[in-house]
């Protein structure tokens, strides 16, 4: 563990990062101004694999299918 940094601080940062990332993909799905990049698809698949909430997981899978298939 890094001295001076609590484990919950990392979780909060990760949650904010995940939220911002997903929000950008949702906005992109409405505007389709450009195509999502490959790294975004990889990151979304990682979030899907880690998701424990079945409803949210299904929603993320739908977003993945819409944007990348």
Gap between N and C termini: 40 Å
Shape type: globular
Low-confidence stretches: 5-12
Q: Name the average pLDDT.
A: 81
- Proportion of helical residues: over 70%
Individual helix count: 3
Percent in strands: under 5%
- Number of separate strands: 0
Major sheet: none
Note the quaternary state here.
single chain
Task: Briefly summarize what is shown.
By secondary structure, the chain is mostly helical. The protein contains three helices and no strands.
Descriptive account of the structure:
By secondary structure, this protein is mainly alpha-helical. The protein has a domain at 43-69. Helix content is 77%, strand content 0%. It has 3 helices and no strands. Helix 2 packs antiparallel against helix 3. The longest helix has 25 residues, at 7-31. It is globular, with a radius of gyration of 14 Å. The termini are far apart. The relative contact order is 0.13.
Write the layout of secondary structure elements.
Elements (H helix, E strand, L loop, with lengths): L6 H25 L6 H13 L3 H15 L1
Which features would summarize this protein structure in a list?
69 residues; globular; 3 helices; single chain
């Amino acid at each position: 563990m890094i001295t001076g940094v609590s484990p919950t601080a990392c979780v909060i940062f990760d949650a904010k990062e995940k939220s911002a990332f997903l929000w950008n993909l949702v906005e992109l799905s409405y505007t389709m101004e450009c195509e999502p990049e490959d790294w975004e698809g990889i990151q979304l698949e990682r979030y899907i694999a880690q998701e424990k909430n079945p409803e949210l997981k299904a929603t993320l899978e739908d977003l993945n299918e819409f944007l990348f298939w």
